[in-house]
Amino acid sequence: MSHRARFAHVNIVARDWRRLADFYENVFGCLPVGPERDYQGRDLDAGTGLSGARLRGVHLKLPGFDGDAAPTLEIFQYDPSGDDPPRSVNRIGFGHICFQVRDVAAARKSVLANGGSAVGKVVTLSPSPTASVTWCYVKDPEGNILELQRWSPFGFKPR
């Protein structure tokens, strides 16, 4: 049976949710939506399978979408926090979040200037004779992997 679905959000569990939310707001223009979250108690424990947890955070509207139905980046901080295994671009499971940008090199510089770090260099690949993609991987201040990309000639035209 197939269920009609609509994409809603991607979650990042943060060490410091306010600092990470500020990064995504400053670098990519994400906007806070809805109330800040602050949950704890029996229902949170039952829903998460944890015991004695507290969850705080916010949803950020992702850039490039209009209206209330825009997908969000959910940034939550758990107390106590869990493990933080090393991340790499080829690890199994969720890998990265991608942002289309006008200028990949400039966006990379902005990520680095706002506490992020580099993974690789800016490169251009041509998957067909009529299109190319310029991209790079970077990390946000907490080590989550991001891809910055621009396609040509079908390039992204942000407002």
List the main descriptive attributes of the protein structure presented here:
159 residues, alpha+beta, 2,3-Dihydroxybiphenyl 1,2-Dioxygenase, domain 1, 2 domains, five-stranded mixed sheet, four-stranded mixed sheet, 3 helices, globular, MMCE/EMCE_epimerase, methylmalonyl-CoA epimerase activity, Glyas_Bleomycin-R_OHBP_Dase, Glyas_Fos-R_dOase_dom
Strand percentage lies at 35-45%
Main beta-sheet strand count, sense and barrel state: 5 strands, mixed
Q: Over all CA atoms, what is the radius of gyration?
A: 17 Å
Please tell me what the overall shape is: globular
Order of helical and strand elements: EHEHEEEHEEEE
Q: On the 0-100 scale, what is the average pLDDT?
A: 91
